[in-house]
Amino acid sequence: MKNLFLGSAVLAASTMLSSTAFADYSLTILHLNDLHSRIESINKYDSTCNAEGEAEGKCFGGIARVKTMLDERRDALSNEGKDYLVVDAGDQFQGSLFYTTYKGAAAVEFMNGLGVDVMAVGNHEFDDGSQGLADFIEAAEFPVISGNTHVENEPLLKGKIPGVLVLEKSGEKIGIVSALAEDTDETSSPGEGVRFIQAEDYLKGAVESLEAAGINKIIAVTHAGLSRDKEIAAAVPGIDLIVGGHSHTLLSNTQERAEGPYPVLVENPEGKQVPIVQAYAYGKFLGEIDVTFDDDGNVLSAQGEPILLDASVTPDEAFQARVAELGAPIEELKAKVIGSSEAPIDGARTSCRAGECQMGNLVADAMLDRVKDQGVQIAIQNGGGLRSSIDEGEVTMGEVLTVLPFQNTVATFRLSGADVIAALENGVSKVEEGAGRFPQVAGLKYTWTQSKPAGEGRILAVEVMENGEWVPIDPEKTYGVVSNNYMRSGGDGYKVFAENGANAYDFGPGLELVLADYIAANNGYTPYLDGRITEQ
Predict the structure, then answer these.
(1) Smaller CB count within 10 Å for the chain: N or C?
(2) Given this structure, which CATH class describes domain 337-535?
């Protein structure tokens, strides 16, 4: 086979050896993660960029720019006599009208055209159940792997998702292992026949088997998030490099908003430094890490930097033409103006998964407004269900669908005050991980803290709006609640909704239609924060 990954880290990322021994081997990994169906280019808010933005040079990414840069880097590396590998760390599915319209078919077509060498399964690859992933794998011209994803009881996927690959390049054997976030059954829809093994438990065995076969360069391609990647690196000996995704983390040595250096280094149980890389999301960057190994598979250096795919990168013409062809049927829907906003509406992942955010207020307000005549007092929306911001000025249906791409429906039910508090406890239980369960609310105020362990009283106070006044929630009282059908069925850990929600109706209007109607009714909308969520 023709591609590779690399192994054990010993020196800091910035280390450059002054000389290279004859037996040393270098490999460059070009990597993507969390494209989330951003087939078209994006603006600074990570939503679809328009023709005006392209003309003004304000757009980033888009699959045609990814193609251009991949080809440029491969050509350059080949001309220098260097080996390389193209890796995708998962979550091609979900996030734009291309996914809403074509599901995984458009994603796999472009991935085949990119010449990807290996892809890890992301949690959102299960958004249309096992069938959606099975169809993607059937069409893929590259391996799709996930070692801790157990599918032996799912006929659609049984035997189709290997956990380990061994690739050979320039006579060097490279072992590739993979792991997926263990809570995928909560964040997506894999079905009862799929279960997820603890990543460390699986990876230890997989790495030991590779080492027993004489393979000493081992790369983990994961979709678990940076915090989990750090835990994996610290717990599993023998992993030499982790190429990750899921947390949408920008690691960089030059970008102002980077959340850490590229690569991040973590000491493993053998005292070796393991480099971890990730390249943000949405195709805005192409990661590039060059790793040099000695003959024993130890990493001598790990250096690189994500490449920003801005307007200076010319989109590949053939890819761009295909994007336009596939986009034509949905242009009319995308272009429909449904209202306007007086200012940008912040729906950034970093905002909506950690505290009150403008998009959370807007969506929760819209949900509550839609069902207020049904005796509903409280709206709870998961921050992870909000996938984009909206720029000021005209708001199109395409922008609304980019914010809410999951085709969720409005769900109403009855819940005790005690269970509402329990739901909020779940919502703030994984805020340190940037988990999508963080609760955006309306008709409700709450105060929370990170100073206590998850699930042990992080919610300090809860108030409900009653007769125009804020009053403490009554644990014994039953309240009308509106959420989305994903959460109502237990998604994002909201099992209390599924188990204790009474008189549930999960088949209300589409959440995107509810938001579009609300914006239309409040044309000239002004985004705001009002202190409904406070942290102590």
Answers:
(1) C
(2) alpha beta
Residue type for position 195: R
Q: How far apart are CA 206 and CA 238, in angstroms?
A: 10
| Length of the chain, in residues | 536
Q: How far apart are CA 102 and CA 284, in angstroms?
A: 22
Residues 163 and 150 sit within 8 Å (Cβ to Cβ) = no
Q: Which residue has the higher pLDDT, 325 or 50?
A: 325
Both tokens assigned to 367 = 């949900």
> Which candidate, 47, 80, 39, 65, places its Cα nearest to that of 402?
47
Q: What is the DSSP string of 447-512?
A: EE-SSS-TTSS-EEEEEEEETTEEEE--TTSEEEEEEEHHHHTTGGG-HHHHHH-EEEE---SBHH
Q: Per-residue pLDDT tens for 285-320?
A: 999 999 999 999 999 999 999 999 999 999 999 999
Q: Are 479 and 470 in contact (CB under 8 A)?
A: no
**Residue bearing tokens 């992942």:** 349
Check residue 443 and give left, alpha or beta (phi > 0: left; psi -120 to 50: alpha).
left
Q: Identify whether the C-beta of residue 413 lies closer than 8 Å to the C-beta of residue 454.
A: no
**Per-residue pLDDT reduced to its tens digit, 332-384:** 888 899 999 999 999 999 999 999 999 999 999 999 999 998 899 999 999 99
Query: Coil, strand or helix: which one is 277?
Result: strand
For 331, residues 6+ apart whose C-beta sits below 8 A from its C-beta are none
Which CATH number applies to 8-16+25-321? Answer: 3.60.21.10
Distance CA 231, CA 248 (A): 17
d(CA 420, CA 14): 49
Q: Which residue has the tokens 């750090």?
A: 230
List the chain domain ranges: 8-16+25-321, 337-535
How far is Cα 355 from Cα 534, in angstroms, rounded to an integer?
Answer: 7
- Given a cut of 70, whether residue 12 has pLDDT beyond it is no
User: What distance in Å separates the CA atoms of residue 3 and residue 209, rounded to the nearest whole number?
Assistant: 20
CA gap 314, 312 in Å, rounded: 6
Minimal CA–CA distance to 532: which of 434, 445, 409, 424?
445
pTM greater than 0.90 (yes/no) = no
Per the CB < 8 A criterion, the answer to whether 146 and 136 are in contact is no
Q: Are 436 and 36 in contact (CB under 8 A)?
A: no
